[in-house]
């Protein structure tokens, strides 16, 4: 049975799942969810995700939510397809997990606040809170110092090869690279090279192409 991803492609969490599917060259159906109408808070969607958030995911009789859990399912289940997204030794796997946690617990909360204040609020006709921006720019700068040190040691966060730890950052890097926060990334050469590498992946370009359709 076909793989289905429910949610709009412009959602960062939906993009994360789609990027993993594209890395694996898997066919899937992107099922629209009208969030303006609040369809994500109603049946039938909340049977798929009781928290009323996109994405929801189906692979045959398996139903999942939480984008990072979905990408891990894809990477493990379709290990022999497309690009390898997981290290093959337990120590490297543990290091990748550390950086997946860093993305989810530290990078994403700060990056999401910045994207919301700088990019999304103006689109909604709301006023950007400069104090929130300043506070989170400072947090992002400190965070990127840690990334710079890590990326000086290894090309990717998990080690020498691209893994889910890098892929999970792609939506945040994409949205922030279109804002003034980009200067924080540009000031750190290893972070700059890593961002360029992650965003230049063919699977990421294919993910963005869905946004244009
Ligand atoms: N931790 C969840 C977060 C999902 C999430 O925040 N989705 C957003 C769109 S990117 C959403 O559905 N927002 C609407 C809402 O929370 O009501 C995941 O990674 O799947």
TrEMBL record:
UniProt keyword annotations, A-Z: Transferase
InterPro entries reported in the protein's UniProt record: Glutathione-S-Trfase_C-like (IPR010987), Glutathione-S-Trfase_C_sf (IPR036282), Glutathione_S-Trfase (IPR040079), Glutathione_S-Trfase_N (IPR004045), GST_C (IPR004046), GST_Phi_C (IPR034347), Thioredoxin-like_sf (IPR036249)
EC number: 2.5.1.18
Keyword Transmembrane among UniProt keywords: no
GO molecular function: glutathione binding; glutathione transferase activity
Domain spans labelled GST C-terminal: 89-213
Any one Gene Ontology BP term: toxin catabolic process
A GO CC annotation given for this chain: cytoplasm
The GST N-terminal domain, residue ranges: 1-82
Swiss-Prot/TrEMBL catalytic activity: RX + glutathione = an S-substituted glutathione + a halide anion + H(+)
Homology family: Belongs to the GST superfamily. Phi family.
PANTHER family documented for this protein: GLUTATHIONE S-TRANSFERASE RHO, GLUTATHIONE S-TRANSFERASE-LIKE
Protein name: glutathione transferase
Native species: Capsicum annuum (Capsicum pepper)
């Amino acid at each position: 049975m076909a793989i289905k991803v429910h949610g709009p492609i412009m959602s960062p969490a939906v993009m994360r799942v789609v990027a993993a599917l594209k890395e694996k060259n898997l066919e899937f159906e992107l099922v629209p969810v009208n969030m303006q109408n609040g369809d994500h808070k109603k049946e039938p969607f909340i049977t798929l995700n009781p928290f009323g958030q996109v994405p929801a995911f189906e692979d045959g009789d398996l139903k999942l939510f939480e984008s990072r859990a979905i990408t891990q399912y894809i990477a493990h289940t379709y290990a022999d397809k497309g690009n390898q997204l997981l290290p093959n030794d337990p120590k490297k796997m543990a290091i990748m997990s550390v950086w997946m946690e860093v993305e989810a617990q530290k990078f994403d909360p700060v990056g999401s606040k910045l994207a919301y204040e700088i990019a999304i609020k103006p689109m909604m006709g709301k006023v950007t809170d400069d104090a929130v921006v300043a506070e989170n720019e400072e947090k992002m700068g400190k965070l990127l110092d840690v990334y710079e040190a890590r990326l000086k040691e290894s090309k990717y966060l998990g080690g020498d090869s691209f893994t889910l730890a890098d892929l999970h950052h792609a939506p945040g890097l994409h949205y922030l690279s279109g804002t003034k926060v980009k200067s924080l990334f540009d000031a750190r050469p290893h972070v700059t090279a890593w961002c360029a590498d992650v965003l230049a992946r063919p699977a990421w370009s294919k993910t963005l192409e869905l946004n244009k359709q």
